[in-house]
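I am still getting used to backbone structure tokens and would like to learn alongside you. To get us started, please write out a protein record for me. Once you have written the record down, we can walk along the chain together.
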Amino acid sequence: MKKNIGINKIIFIVFLASIFLIIGISVVSNNLPATSYASQEKTITVHYHNIDKWEIPFIYCYMDDYEGASWPGIQMKHEKGDWYSHTVYDMSQIRVIFSDNGKNQNPGQGETGYLVKNDMWYYNGKWYDQEPQNTVIHYYNSYNWSKVNIYYYQEGFNTPDWPGMAMNRKEDGWYTYEIVGLDHPYVIFNDTGNDQIPEQDAPGFQVTGEKWYYNGTWYDENPLTNNDDLSFKVHYYNYHDWNVPYIYYYRNGAFTPDWPGTAMKTEGDGWFEYEIKGIASPKVIFSDKGANQIPGQKEDGFTVSKEAWYRNGLWSDVRPLDINIYFYKPDEWNKPYVYYYESDSDTGPAWPGAAMDDIGNRWYKYTIRKYSVAKILFNDNDHQIPDEKQEGFEVAGDMWYKDGEWFHYNPDMAEDYNVTGDLNGDGVINEKDADLLDKYLSGEIQLTEEQKKLADTNGDGVVDDKDYDILNQYINGEITEFPKEDETEGFTDRNVSYEYDKLGRVIKVIYDSENYIEYVYDRNGNITDVKVTGKVN
């Protein structure tokens, strides 16, 4: 019987091939990357905020089954700003100690390192599982402090000691500081602990996100670049002699200071100012730091939309006029005083009033800033003008009193100085002279005979509106001299009309549709440009 040897050989060969295949697969699989058959071991990234301004932060990592660099560890990698980081591979948890190359350390010497199990951020004594939110503060140095510090605090967090941290100086008076890890801190600005905002014993301002603090008000954007069109000044005359006037302003939806607002800045002569930025048409209330206020309690504030002046219940677009009083001292008088008042309950300084200033040649001067119109009495404690029990003289503008007679110009100068148009005798022909003539023509005041001659600018013997028009043309530069008598008829009969701005200044002189003069003024009322169209001579 023949044996089937071929079949057995085939079976044996197949068996050996299987063995070699298994061995080959094992060898190949051992040479493949670990990621092809198993998950990679966990990594941990530690982020550290260098709040102590170490030159370079080091990190020392250790664990029972981890062999890292010896103390003080390795330099951390700079990320951004004051943030540094270090990544540990193939560990699910690790203990860490931060140091400035071993000199100072956190945690302290002899203390156990922080246990970190995931990517973590360390800021100012506290750990976060994501990058902590920052608060960015911008402060405008309104008071010109030599150094600006910011002190901040938030419950549950370690914060710097008083007076806090120095803010970083930027351009145009701004200082900036970024508070990392605090999402709603309270902040206090100070000049290294001397003066501070808010004031002593008051809580700090609570701030979130990025904010700008300018002149007593918080803004979401830089008010000096984004809202210049909403900037204007409010002027207040300290009529009631408050220690420091405060201004409180508000508008629905706007972020404004808390009551009683912000102290106003002195301008001198009893005037105070405050610039409101970034808020259109707010309502304003004046007070002596909340004790007394204008308007009264429970009344709406004044609505203000542009630069304005407030004095004694009246608003104006320009600073109200003062009263300049000149008194010629009689021989028998001592140093003169002026007592002034508006009513029995509204007066200037108590009797005998305010001492007048000696300006030479027996003339004394005093400026009344509290009123535009007032009643006055002169005295030297022994003599009085008007006499006792008589009502005071009513005065306004610039007025001179000599030998029982009032003048709207210096009568001593007028004896040697008579120039057409110079009604007040101050040596200058300007708006003050035009104002006197206007008041005379409207019946508000009387002119002396000498003043009437000076007011007769066209020389026709009559003081009327034609003289007023010619005087204004001279002041505005339209003419360089007053017309001679033989020129007046053609000049004054010419049909001329005027356009004025809101301050009453002539901005256009119109002879007809094709012949006119235009004027441009600066903020101080000076003519900066004259444009002549057509023929105006």
Summary: The radius of gyration is 42 Å.
